[in-house]
Amino acid sequence: MLGQIRGRVTPKWRICARPLMGWTKIAPDCVENARKGAKPFLALFALSGTILDPTQLIVKSSPRPRVALSDSETGAVIKGMNVQRTLVRVLAVATSATAMLFAAGFVYFANQVSSYPNTAKVPADGIVVLTGAVPRIDDAIMLLREGRAPRLLISGVNPSVSTAVLKRRVAQSAQLFDCCIDLGREARNTVENAAEARAWLDKHRFATVILVTSNYHMPRSMLEFAHAAPDVTLIPHAVTANAVAPREWWRHPATGRLLLGEYTKYLYALARIWIDRINPA
User: Fold this and answer.
1) Structural domain boundaries, residue 203
2) What CATH number is given to the structural domain containing 206?
3) Which residues contact 187 (CB under 8 A, 6 or more apart)?
């Protein structure tokens, strides 16, 4: 429908039509000019899909064809709309439930991190410490000196770090490297730590081991070691860094980010191990 047509042939009929109740009223002088050969005006009506009726001085827009749907087609359309609404609702509920489960699991994970003991009082056949944070090795050597186990494996030592450097790091216990401390240099992550430790445990036929690592790293380490060595009894010894406060993680953004990242890695490890168990290679 024409909203407003402006002619540009002569100023006399600059405004030739205005909308009126679905019809367009044409000024008489516009019709007269059209009859005298105002071709641009008529061409404008022709391009707009309208029919000019000079007798009644009105222009009627061509109606758009309407397609009538059968009852079955109407029912199919309504059914499709209902299916879309149901899918949207199911997706919203699933997303909300997943977010709630993730949040609840994170709270449980944070509480679990803070519940691990930092003193292994039960004797074991061996000690395994995972490199990464400085206090871990100190705690592991302390347990070795206290006689909690006769042998220690330091897993994940950088190949560029020599034994002499490590001896200087723990000068008071340097003599223990000659009799009771083994270095593992192959592992680059927690999964490889567990595999490296499993080979060491099998070599010495150890059935119980004290696992030393940071408290926030302990859940994933216990998970990986239990998967790699299911027949070995694991005794956790969690090392707590001064900068990490898992009991009040919501007050410390750095701790919250650290725990959230570790929790995500834990979930990934849990899913990978679950898949390995249901689909063994």
Assistant:
1) 116-241
2) 3.40.50.620
3) 155, 156, 193, 195, 196
Q: Is 95 exposed, middle or buried (0-12, 13-18, 19+ CB in 10 A)?
A: exposed
In a domain, 13, yes or no: yes
What percent of the chain shows pLDDT beyond 90? Answer: 38
| pLDDT for the residue numbered 3 | 40
Report, as ranges of residue numbers, the positions in the chain whose pLDDT lies below 70.
1-75, 77, 120, 134, 242-246, 281
| Distant-in-sequence, close-in-space partners of 69: CB < 8 Å, separation ≥ 6 | 77
Specify whether the CB–CB gap between 156 and 131 falls below 8 A.
yes
* Predicted local confidence at residue 242, as pLDDT: 65
Say yes or no: 38 and 133 in one domain.
no
pTM, two decimals, is 0.67
DSSP state of 74: H
Question: Which positions ≥6 away from 243 have C-beta within 8 Å?
Answer: 254, 255
C-alpha–C-alpha distance, residues 39 and 8, integer Å: 11
Cβ-in-10-Å burial (0-12, 13-18, 19+) of 169 comes to: middle
Q: What is the largest CA-CA distance in the chain?
A: 118
Sign of the alpha-carbon dihedral angle for 187, 234, 118, 102: positive
Residue 152 within a domain: yes
Determine the Cα–Cα distance for residues 27 and 34; give it in Å rounded to an integer: 11
Amino acid symbol at 102: F
